[in-house]
Design a protein that fits this description.
The structure is a single chain. The chain is an alpha+beta fold and 108 residues long. It has two helices and four strands, in the order ββαββα. The chain has one domain. It is globular, with a radius of gyration of 15 Å.
Length: 108
């Protein structure tokens, strides 16, 4: 049995650190939309860090959260409210319990 076979409702983050460069997306499975939002924020902050410190001269990045449904991956939306803006959904639906690990600070 392959543990990488997705199941209905599975979530993963996809990230393209250099859009248009012809490289595959970075992808990572996540447990829930909160974890997905935290990872997306960390990836964006890491790209900004690299730009600020001249690791990358420039970049055009993009990413998102996708959900496995009916045998394929689709852009995530809340199954209850149909909200598709992940940042707005996280803001409107705070975690039921405080979890400091999901709070990733923006670099100075």
């Amino acid at each position: 049995m392959n543990n990488d076979t997705p199941k209905e409702g599975d979530l993963k983050v996809w990230w393209q650190p250099q859009a248009g460069a012809g490289i595959p997306n970075f992808e990572v499975k996540v447990a829930d939309p909160y974890e997905g939002a935290a990872i997306l924020k960390a990836l964006a902050n890491y790209d900004l860090f690299q730009l600020k410190h001249n690791v990358k001269p420039s970049f055009i990045n993009t990413g998102g959260l996708i959900m496995f449904d009916n045998g394929d991956w689709y852009d995530w939306e809340c199954p209850k409210t149909y909200e598709s803006d992940l940042d707005q959904w996280v803001e409107d639906n705070p975690r039921p319990t405080a979890d400091a690990s999901s709070e990733i600070p923006t670099p100075a």
